[in-house]
Design a protein that fits this description.
With 161 residues, the chain is mainly α. Helix content is 70%, strand content 0%. This is Rod shape-determining protein MreD.
Length: 161
Amino acid sequence: MSRARTGWLMPLSFIVALLLGLLPLPDLLQPLRPYWLALVLAYWVIEAPDNAGLGLAVIVGLVADLMFGTLLGEQALRLLIMAFIVQRFRARLRFFPVSQQALAIGGLLLNDRIVTTVVHLALGEPTLPWPYWWAPVLGMLFWPPLFVLMDALRLGRRKRG
């Protein structure tokens, strides 16, 4: 796969994930917002480990901290931890069926909520209300369609012959 053909997809996917994170939602739905950046980062670490890794996780996390107005470094730390775990288990995750990948991603997103809670507790910041703990489940449900969409865009259509 030529880098020129897919070189636009990675930055565009992170921009879309950032915009989805900024999209206003009704108060009732706000706690259910999936962590789009984590989903996109996990995809790229699994599928393009030479181009996506810990450094990218920190950079994207710092940009997200600035855009979302969160504590500087919080999302960078969260994404760094996620990228590290995905890198560590990439060989296994890559060959799981998408449904099993979704379960693993759900576990990673739950871990992300735990990291967020620990950081907030350590700094004396308010922790997330309980409805926000449902977001990892929704992220897990969004993983299969996101994975299939990203793969279709990355690999392009195959010619039928």
